[in-house]
Structures are given as structure tokens and as C-alpha cells.
Amino acid sequence: MIKVSSTEKSSIPADQMTASFNVSSSDVNYQKTLEHLNLKTKSLFNDLRTLSFENKVNVSSYSIRKIYDKNNEFTNYRGTSIIKLESSYTQENILEVINLLNSSKSSPTFTFTFTNSNIPTFRNSLINSAYNGAKVKADILAKSSNQVIKGISETTIRDYNIPVPLRMYNEAQYVPQEIDVQITVDVVYET
């Protein structure tokens, strides 16, 4: 038996972005909380419709819950709505969203996440390279110990996608870093 590991790591630029917007409302009256949350959610939807680039917008969560203090006494209702916008990533698109949010009456908090539409294909090529690297290592070990590899008895793939931070270089330039993808293949060869 020969056990080897091989790791392949590479980076790919972001080409897709998701903006998550969180709007909230609170009041001691349930109906007022609901109405205020609906107004903010509708206002944000209307704002997002004015974007000049192609995008997909949906509500990913919507809730109203009771809030209690540390003595377990009711304080108010809190409503939250999370709206997601998905689109291709360009410098112009992200700046348009940020400018729109500066004037929005819905006052959302927001985060951006970035990915690449070709990560599955990119990941598969790294897996192939890692398997090839493991096979080369196993062949060297087999040859040096006068063994013959008969096949694979066990394999494990460890996949690490490192999150993409957003860097602000100045007020007008927001740039996501490249997406780091790392694949480690552990292979046990039968001899």
C-alpha cells in the first residue's frame, strides 16, 4: 500500500456578484412593523428596478418576530427582509449599486459576495492535476521500493474555496480579489 497526497492551488478572477440587502423595521405594534417593513422592501425593489444592467432580484428571507429583554418581557416586534441581487461583476455595476443605495429611502445594510461562473470547470481541472501529481509521487515510491501499483483502494478530495474580500482603493474603485481554489487529493494505491 502506498499513500500519497497532492495539492493544486490556483486563482480565478470574479465575474459574478451577489449583493444582499437587509431592511428592517421595529415597533411595539405588529401591524405597524409589518407595514413599515413592506414599505421599505417595496421601496428597495423599486430602486433596484432602475439599475441599468441585467440582474436578478429576489427576496431570500422575510420575518417578523417578537423581541424580549433579558427579563423575558416583550419589548417590540422586529421585521427583517433580505433581498438579493445577482448579476455579472463589473466595476461599473458595483458602483451603480452603491450610488443607488446612497439615495435609497429604504436604508438597507448590504454586503457583496463574488464568485466565478466557471469554478466547477476550474475545480475539475485542479482535481485532474492533483490526481496526476499523486500518481507521479506513487510511481516514484513504488519504483524505489520495488512495488507495482495495482490500482486505487481509497481516495479523498479536500476542497478549499477561499472567500473573496472586497478592496476599496479609493472612493470610486471597488475591486474583489481573485478567488483562491485549492484541491488536495489523498490517494491510497494498492500494491
Layout of secondary structure:
Elements: E1 2-12, E2 16-27, H1 30-49, E3 56-68, E4 74-88, H2 91-103, E5 109-115, H3 119-144, E6 151-162, E7 166-170, E8 173-176, E9 179-190
Antiparallel strand pairs: 1-9, 2-4, 2-5, 3-4, 6-9, 7-8
Q: What does this entry show, briefly?
A:
The protein has helices at 30-49, 91-103, 119-144; strands at 2-12, 16-27, 56-68, 74-88, 109-115, 151-162, 166-170, 173-176, 179-190.
* Second rung of CATH, namely the architecture of the largest domain: 2-Layer Sandwich
Q: Rg, please?
A: 25 Å
| Residue windows where pLDDT falls under 50 for at least 5 positions | none
Shape: elongated
- In round numbers, the mean pLDDT is 90
Instruction: Summarize the main sheet.
Output: 4 strands, antiparallel
CATH class of the largest domain: Alpha Beta
Q: Number of helical runs?
A: 3
Integer count of domains:
2
Oligomer: single chain
Strand ordering within the main sheet: 3-4-2-5
Number of strands: 9
Structural features, described:
The chain is of the alpha+beta class and about 190 residues long. The protein has 2 domains: about 1-15 and about 115-190, Translation Initiation Factor IF3 (2-Layer Sandwich); about 15-115, 2-Layer Sandwich (Alpha-Beta Plaits), CATH 3.30.70. It is about 30% helix and about 50% strand. It contains 3 helices and 9 strands, in the order ββαββαβαββββ. It has helices spanning about 30-50, 90-105, 120-145; strands at about 1-10, 15-25, 55-70, 75-90, 110-115, 150-160, 165-170, 175, 180-190. The protein has a 4-stranded antiparallel β-sheet. The protein has a 3-stranded antiparallel β-sheet with strand order 1-9-6, with helices on one face. The protein is elongated, with a radius of gyration of 25 Å. The termini are close together.
